[in-house]
Structures are given as C-alpha cells and as structure tokens.
Amino acid sequence: MRVTFLGTGTSTGVPTLACHCRVCDSSDPHDRRTRPSVMLEFDSRVVVIDTTPDFREQARRERMERLDAVLFTHDHVDHVLGLDDVRPFYFRQRTAIPIFADSRSMESIRRIFKYIFDQKYPYGGLAKLDPHLIDGPFELWGERVIPLPVFHGNLPVLGFRIRDFAYITDFSAIPDETLPLLEGVDVLVLDALRHKPHPTHSTVENSLSLVEQLKARRAYFTHIAHELSHSETNAALPPHVRLAHDGLRVEL
Fold first, then answer.
1. Phi, psi angles (nearest 5°) of residue 154
2. What range defines the domain where residue 31 resides?
3. Number of domains composing the chain
4. What CA–CA distance (Å, rounded) separates 206 from 214?
5. CA–CA gap between residue 175 and residue 136 (Å, rounded)
6. DSSP-assigned states of every residue in 26-49
7. In this model, does residue 117 exceed pLDDT 90?
8. Could you read off the pLDDT of 6-58 as tens digits, one per residue?
9. Can you spell out the DSSP letters for 147-176?
10. For position 124, what pLDDT does the model report?
C-alpha cells in the first residue's frame, strides 16, 4: 500500500492569508501546506481520506486517474468542501463513488451537498455518490478498515486504520478504548498543530508522547500550522518521527 499526503496544513492552509511570518514567507516548498488529506493506493484502488477545499489542485498535482472511495473523518469545511470535485472521476468511471462517514457527519454532508443527493438538476453534470454510514469496522475490496474514535475538542471524530497504517488528524484526545486499536501500527500519522497548547488539536509534544507510548516504527505529523518551520522542526524530532509535507509518499 502506498500513502500520499495530499495536504498537511491546518484549516487556513500555509501560507496563511495576510500573514508574513517567516514560515508563510518561507522559500522552502515544504512550508507550503494545503488542507489535510491523504490518498491510499492498494490493489489498483484509490481511496482518499477527506476532500478538502484544495482537493482539485491536490489531485492534479498527484496526477490522480481514478477515485474508488472517500472516507470522512468529520464534517468541518476544511475536510469536506472539495467533495464536488469528485465529479470528473464519476464521469470517467460511470459508477457511483462510495463515501463513508459517521451519522452526524453524513447528515451534514447531505445538507451541504443537497443538490448532489437530490439529483434534481435537469442539465446533468452531477456526480453520483453512494453513502455508507460508519458504525464499526468495514471492508473495502478485501481490506479491513477500522474506525478510530477520538475527540476534536468536545467533538467526536474519526481516524482510520488500514493494515498497519493509522491516520488521526484533528484530535486533542484519544480515549483509552481507542488505544488498543493502534497496537502494532507500523506507520502512525498524527495531528501536531504547533508547540503551544490548543483546545481542539494535539501539539508536537503530545503527539511525540503518543508515538512513544504506541511504539510506532514510523510516525508523521500533519495538520501543521504556520508556527512550525519544516526544516527546523524536523531537526529537533527523533529520526523515526517527521513532519509530513504535501506530496510525501510512504510505502508500506
């Protein structure tokens, strides 16, 4: 399985509009971060976790040729607003694209994209989506997908584990009952917004503690704000932990 980081930034992206801090004005391309998402490729299938407002440009950059499913961690706009841009893949493939979300997020997605689900636009040009509610582990083309319940502030959201890869963005706490689901993970992706504490996001220090606790062989941090310089932060991290960057590919 191959994992490609489509985006690794926080909800505003980096550079952040109207900001001229040293990271936003950095010439290092690794400091340019679109909104957070990953693409998984296995068995000739392509699965995306979250469709950000930057999804179109992310898909163009990575030369995506197909899309077989979308998994949603939650319904905040920086994770869902690019859903309309799955249309070209539907037009090519001519089969409804499965989307997976918990009941609260699916209700919100149906409301935001009511015109897609209604299918009443008389002139065509709409994607067809095949919605599936997540209420436990499920199968995707022979791969077991394990939802990972976590908290984003007070909001319950999801991470996902497939094989020995786990992806948890936008979290501030991982419940004790979720930790056993992460045992034996090889590649662990965690939210690490910045060093300063935040009410709804993990910090670099908190995520480092989780990496040590879970004994992950490799870890990558995502949902990175403009407070963190890519090169300087990586220089201070242990060798098996890195800040992810847009376009990074990891083989499992």
1. -95, 0
2. 2-251
3. 1
4. 12
5. 16
6. ---GGG-B-S-EEEEEETTEEEEE
7. yes
8. 999 999 999 999 999 999 999 999 999 999 999 999 999 999 999 999 999 99
9. EEEEEETTEEEEEEEETTEEEE-S-SB--T
10. 82
Report the pLDDT averaged over residues 218-225.
98
Each as own residue / partner, the long-range contacts of residues 212-217 (CB below 8 Å, 24 or more positions apart, any chain) are 213/179, 214/179, 214/182, 214/183, 214/185, 214/188, 216/182, 216/185, 216/186, 216/187, 216/188, 216/240, 217/186, 217/187
Q: Is the pLDDT of residue 123 over 90?
A: no
CATH number at residue 175: 3.60.15.10
Identify the helix (H) or strand (E) that includes residue 71.
strand 69-71
Q: Retrieve residue 104's tokens.
A: 């609260």
CA distance 205 to 161: 22
Q: Specify the pLDDT at position 211.
A: 98
Residues whose CB falls within 8 Å of the CB of residue 94, separated by 6 or more in sequence, listed in order: none
Rounded to whole angstroms, the Cα distance separating 139 from 145 reads 6
Q: Grade residue 228 by pLDDT with cuts at 50, 70 and 90.
A: very high
How far is residue 159's CA from residue 151's CA, in Å, rounded to a whole number? 10
Residue with tokens 């994992």: 3
Q: Which residues pair with 160 in a beta bridge?
A: 147, 167
DSSP 14: B
Indicate the average pLDDT of the chain: 97
Burial 166-188 (b: 16+ CB within 10 A, else e): bbbbbbbebeeebeebbeebebb
Q: Which residues on neighbouring strands pair with residue 14, listed in sequence order?
A: 33
Percentage of the chain modeled with pLDDT above 90? 97
Q: How many residues does the chain have?
A: 252
